[in-house]
């Protein structure tokens, strides 16, 4: 059987502050190839270049990646301010309808960091733009200094709901994760179930209730060291299984997140 094709949502960049480019992180590609045993394909995040229908026909599953630009707050009914940082409206315009279409169809996806936030916004939820400024909350942002290993080091626990999809997938109710984000979920969207939280209450793991497929999202970055970290490996292995089921025409077997 051919390996499933996984669309990895890319991001817009300017090379030398001039040349526009679309690209994706090597670690996401490695996690898809090495752990999912699938074919990684970087998707340009622009609806003028690709359509939701074309992508769903070309790919068996999707990874909604992290990114520096935040989801534009107009997408959840709030005005933009300087504090919200940079935006990528083209990515918003592609990913939000794609998430809704995948959720309805049962086609599997794994959402990471910004992708986690995109899922919540796509389903009608809202975001806090700087959770470290909220009372009782910790600083979840990436450390400004240090090596990549230090920046992506495991920094806090995530506790899952007893018997929930993440508990079942991980075989444990508590795991250690990295943390490299500023924003977070304020109000969950329709059907969005928070299945794991950090010690300060920040939402860290979600799925869509009643969705007919794999709809897991995490606020941390499991693509880092995915082949060797047991938490990351279980997440990408579960996603890879769901993508293989989809490619084989098996729809119900991927319903670990329903």
Strand content: 15-25%
Average pLDDT, rounded to a whole number, is 91
Work out the number of β strands.
13
Q: How many angstroms does the end-to-end distance come to?
A: 27 Å
Q: SSE string, helix = H, strand = E? A: EEEHEHEHEHEHEHEEEEEH
General shape: globular
Strand order of the largest sheet: 4-1-5-6-13-12-11-8-9
Number of helices: 7
* SS-based class: alpha/beta
Radius of gyration: 17 Å
Largest sheet: 9 strands, mixed
Taking pLDDT < 50 over at least 5 consecutive residues as the criterion, the unreliable ranges are 253-258
Quick rundown:
The chain is α/β, with parallel strands linked by helices and 258 residues long. The protein contains seven helices and 13 strands. β11 and β12 (203-208) form a beta hairpin.
